[in-house]
Each structure stands twice: as structure tokens, then as C-alpha cells.
Amino acid sequence: MNILVMNAGSSSLKCGLYVSGEARPLWQALVDWTHRAGVAEVKIEALGAVRREALPLDANDLPQARARVIAHVLRSLWHCDNKVIDGPHVVDRVGHRVVHGGQSYHHPVRITSAVKADIQQLASLAPVHNPANLEGIEIAEQVLGGDIPHIAVFDTAFHSQMPPEAAFYALPREWSAHGIRRYGFHGISHQYCAQRVAQLWQRNLADLRLITCHLGNGCSLAAIRDGHSIDTTMGFTPLDGLMMGTRSGSVDPGILIHLLREGHTAEQLDRALNKQSGLLGVSGVASDFRGVLAAMAAGDANAKLAVDMFIHRLNAGIGAMLMGLGGLDALVFTAGIGENSALVRAQVCEQMTFLGIKLNATANQSNPLDADIASPDSTVRVFVIHTQEDWAIAQACGL
Ligand code: AMP
Hints:
Layout: E1 2-8, E2 12-19, E3 27-36, E4 39-46, E5 49-56, H1 62-79, E6 93-98, E7 109-110, H2 113-121, H3 130-144, E8 150-154, H4 164-167, H5 173-177, H6 187-201, E9 210-215, E10 219-225, E11 228-232, H7 253-261, H8 266-275, H9 278-283, H10 289-297, H11 301-325, E12 330-334, H12 335-340, H13 342-351, H14 361-365, E13 371-372, E14 381-384, H15 389-396
Parallel strand pairs: 1-6, 6-8, 9-12, 12-14
Antiparallel strand pairs: 1-2, 2-3, 3-4, 4-5, 7-8, 9-10, 10-11, 13-14
The protein binds adenosine monophosphate.
């Protein structure tokens, strides 16, 4: 079974061809739409060889220009110079990451025109992501044909069984009837990490209480019990919850009311909260955690405040998840910061010492991946898991 995974976002398109039994894609392509104006930067890797191309993007006809680039990339699947990939028949199924599945989609589904209409309708809740996901689906259908099953795997699905007390905001009842509720995101990553922990630990996932910390440019936590997410920090949008690279995370909504009354527009608030806040906003230096750490090491007080706030907010979120779970078997770190920052892991676990959590300091410092870094006498295990969302999508599609 060969599964093509497509992750079509607003600023980039990632695709990979996965074959049975292999966690690494046999062929993968990355298109960056925004790095250079008027150009799509394409990088294609197949069996160790890398090819880079710069293709023109006509700004006056962007949808068509992007469609041509995606079609070109997908065709390279069977035009690439090797014996393993040699024809369109190489793809048995296509798995598409879809960010927002609303309240109806709890599992991956085969894409039909009704599913596409739902994804389109849900664009009002995910205006940046769902239209890009849908564009990827439609172009892949055109290039690869509709006979191959195309499957949507939703980032919200893992959180779709959260209990009502976690899923709803304390807002007027009729608002929730209009879809204003907590959906949660990063679900593919949280679910993958939970399953990987159970596999590494040789335990039944249904018996474990886990907190998964997805700490990348976007950050979220999930509280996992009986194999399901029962609470998460992201909400109606991926802006809620933890402090992130450029996103504020939760703020007092009264601030927004105040700023609106002061004459700020919705677009200005959107840009400030999504693009100019978080690590970047507080440090004034970088949205990239490494950049903020470097500035802190050089004595920059704002960078230090940003790191301290990041950890404070993270600890506050973990505390909330902990109470919902009523105990904890393992704390799990993943994504760029979670996988690579020994400092963040150490500072979080330090705060949890009173619970009997003990890190193995050497293991924590040794670039662990898919490993338990707690000391043997820790009451709670601590795992670092390399998240593999595209591989998880391939598995969700039956690999
Ligand atoms: P992601 O969105 O998962 O690619 O994660 C991106 C974030 O991970 C950025 O803030 C990076 O600075 C951060 N990151 C990557 N490597 C490291 C590292 N070695 N130490 C600290 N943060 C890192």
C-alpha cells in the first residue's frame, strides 16, 4: 500500500509518499509559496537525491498559478529518476490534512462532494487553513484522478469527544448553538504522541493518563484519558491557550473590547494577536525560541521575560490539565521546542517535583527522541516524542 500525504497550508505545501512499514517517506516535496515574492520555491527529495526549482507564480492569477505548481510537483512523483516510483498507479490512497472538521467529523473520512462542501463551509471557522486544504484536495483529485480514494484527516477530530464542561465556553447558550465552542487543534500530533508513548512503554493507551505538550511555533496541551483528549488549551481558534511564537495565547477578552472602543479595527487586532504577539511581541527579538534563548543568554531582559512567561503559562496550563485528569502517568514533550529544549523540560519538571516527578538530567540533556527521560524512581514518566504528523496521517489512511 502506497499513501500520498498532502498537507496544504496557506504559506506552504508539504507532500510525502509513504509505503507500508516505513515511517520515512520514499518521496517528498515542499513548496514554499511566500518566501520569495512571485516565485514558488520547490524542493523535491526522492531516495536521497534532492532537486530544487523556482517556478513563477503569477500574482494576477494566483489560484491557477498554484494549481500548475502543485500539478507539476505531483507529476514529478512518477517522472523522478528512480526505479521504485514509476507511474501514477504508485498512489493507492491520498491522505489530506484538514485543519477544521467542526463538530461532525470525529474520524478520517473518504472525501466526497458533500465532505468538500462541509470543509468549505467550515472555512468561516478556519479562514486561513480550510480553503488551502480544499485547494490541495481539488488539485490532487484533478491530477491523480477521483478513482483513488482521497481521505480527509482532521486536526480537530481527536478533541471531538471532549466532555461538554471542557468543550463549551461560559457564554450565552445561543452562541454555542452557532458553533462558538472549543474545538482544539494539533489533534493529529497529540494522538500520534499518545499512541507512540503507549507503544514504547508497552502499555495499553486506554489505561494511561497523559498530558501531551506540543510546543512548536504553535503550542498546545492535551489531557488524554481512555485514549481520548478530554481537554486541550487551544479553543475556537488556534489562538487560544499557551503563549506561542507570534500568537498571544489566552488574554483577557476585556482587552479586545477596550481596544475596539479605542478605535482599533478587527483586522488590526487579528494581526497583533496572531502575528505580533507571543515570544516575538514580548521579546521584540524573535518568534523563534532559539533566537529568544540566544538573546536571553546575551543579557536581553525582554528575551528573558518572554522565556519566563512562556514557561509560566505552560506550567499553568499543565496544572489545569492535571486537575482534569485527576492524576498523571506520563508527561510528554513534542514539536520543535518540546523535542529540543532541555531547559524547558527541566523547568517544567522542576515545578512538578512536589508530585514526585524526577528527571534524569543526563537523559534530558542528551537530545533524546522517542525516549523516557524520567529517573527510575520518578512517580510520573516523562517522554520526548518526535512528532510525525504526516506519517500519522498515512497510518490513519490505512497504512
Ligand atoms: P516546529 O513548529 O515544531 O517546527 O518548532 C519550531 C520551534 O522550535 C521554533 O521556536 C524553534 O526555535 C524551536 N526549536 C527548534 N530547535 C530548537 C532547539 N534546539 N532548542 C530550542 N528550541 C528549538
